[in-house]
Write a structure and sequence with these properties.
The chain has five helices and eleven strands. With 184 residues, the chain is of the alpha+beta class. The strands form two sheets. A six-stranded antiparallel β-sheet has the order 1-3-4-11-6-9, with no helix packed on it. Helix 1 packs across helix 3 and helix 2 crosses helix 3. The protein is elongated and about 65 Å long.
Length: 184
């Protein structure tokens, strides 16, 4: 069987780094040792459910199995390669600027916010955020404290702080926004 993704060697490396035998990993995942061996030799293409079980047992993320694809992700990403992200209740055009985030440390976005748009409800998540405004004026609410961010200004804050960001002006806001670690 030919797989688009060759994950077997990654599973094997993670297993041996943890000092686990095929049998011990099988017991931790409710899979058979023979099936795990077939995965490690790229003879089968495991389901997402199986990958999740292996990742949990190996104390890894599913994306770790695709590390070679992440390493080969291009570092030059023109706008036509950016991926549009849809977030419920956000009025903004959010474009992820890298193809894969996997086990990367940052997740950059190019965000365009129309007048009246933005994320109007406070939210939090683990990590940090960096916002650099390119055009327009962004209103950033950090736990009730209002900041107006103009072009060329940087905001850097803990994402554990309840925050919202909106465009209260009549001009479009464009910004680079980076989450670390990747949040979604």
């Amino acid at each position: 069987m030919t797989n688009d993704f060759q994950i077997g060697s990654v599973v094997r490396n993670l297993r041996t780094e943890k000092g686990l035998t095929l049998q011990s990993l099988a017991e931790m995942t409710d899979l058979t040792a023979a099936y795990i061996s077939r995965i490690e030799n790229d003879k089968v293409s495991p389901s997402i459910h199986t990958l999740k079980a292996l990742a949990d047992a190996l104390q890894a993320n599913i994306t770790d199995f695709f590390e070679n694809d992440l390493i080969n992700d291009p570092c030059i990403n023109p706008p036509e390669t950016w991926t549009k992200k849809l977030v419920k209740d956000w009025r903004a055009d959010v474009r992820q600027m890298v193809k894969l985030v996997g086990n990367k440390k940052m997740q950059p976005f190019f965000t365009t916010i129309p007048p009246g748009g933005g994320a109007h409800e406070h939210y939090t998540h683990p990590g940090e955020e960096l916002v650099y405004v390119l055009e327009g004026t962004l209103t950033l609410n950090l736990n009730g404290k209002i900041h107006r961010i103009s072009p060329g200004t940087l905001a850097y804050f803990s994402a554990l702080v309840p925050h919202t960001w909106v465009n209260e002006t009549k001009k479009t806001v464009k910004m680079i926004w980076v989450c670390s670690p990747p949040s979604w």
